[in-house]
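Request from the bench team (R.T.):
"We need a structural guess for the complex before ordering more adenosine-5'-triphosphate. Sequence and SMILES attached. Just send the tokens back."

Command: build protein-adenosine-5'-triphosphate structure.
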Amino acid sequence: MIRFENVTKVYARGARPAVDDVSMEVRRGEFVFLVGASGSGKSTCLHLILREERPTSGKVFVAGRDLRSLSSWKVPNLRRGIGVVFQDFRLLPNKTVFENVAFALQVIGKPRHTIAITVPETLEMVGLAGKEKRRPHELSGGEQQRVAIARAFVNRPPILLADEPTGNLDPTTSLGIMRLLDRINRTGTTVVMATHDDDIVNQMRKRVIELDTGRVVRDQAHGSYVRSDEETEPLTNPDPAPMSAPTTVVRRSAHVDAAAGE
Ligand SMILES: Nc1ncnc2c1ncn2[C@@H]1O[C@H](COP(=O)(O)OP(=O)(O)OP(=O)(O)O)[C@@H](O)[C@H]1O
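Reply to R.T.: structure attached below.
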């Protein structure tokens, strides 16, 4: 679904690479955490997937497309297939919850009747039924992030990128958000999430790719935030089908359900 082949990104001549000879592959339906210290290159990887940045060398493939040879006029189509969620929600403050989500469909020309059906369905899925008419400032941080997730997912993109989506939220609210991203992943959507949230990574036990000054220093199935000696399980052929590893299902559900209190 997403493949980096020896990707290096240098922003300014003479600067050290933000991403340094990274090769990795994320398969359809996977859930992957990108972790690493501030400045290690996580957001740059997401920008490269969206073709908001271009590699200095190496190749990025998304859904079989080589982004190097993708013409500019096809970039909006690429991005249509990639939902994005940010730490700071980025909602339109003067629009209602419904309008914020509907806007994502309007800009890609979806007809009104489709919007009238899809938006309420998606708001229900993210747990915001009944709050359609509120404006962002009338919502909690967790609710605002749910709106942002609804907006990112309303078009059912095959890929969802999340850049620190729990960075502004308390631990319990964060778990609710993770539970939602997990549900979205179970629909078959590939999720790549950059995060510093060690609790979340430790509880979810998903694949972890760790960057250090732009280089991949760990790629581990069912990893924790920091590699520990007991968890040296190598990444071998991650199963592309989500929810298919029974131990993962039990551990993740138990943690998230208990802690989210939902
Ligand atoms: N647009 C840019 N122009 C120049 N340098 C940049 C740009 N964006 C990022 N960088 C640099 O690239 C490096 C990697 O940054 P990046 O934002 O990808 O890291 P990160 O791991 O996402 O960090 P954080 O966790 O703080 O968000 C940093 O040294 C940063 O200063």
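Two things stood out. The longest strand covers residues 2-9. The CA atoms of residues 34 and 194 lie 4 Å apart.
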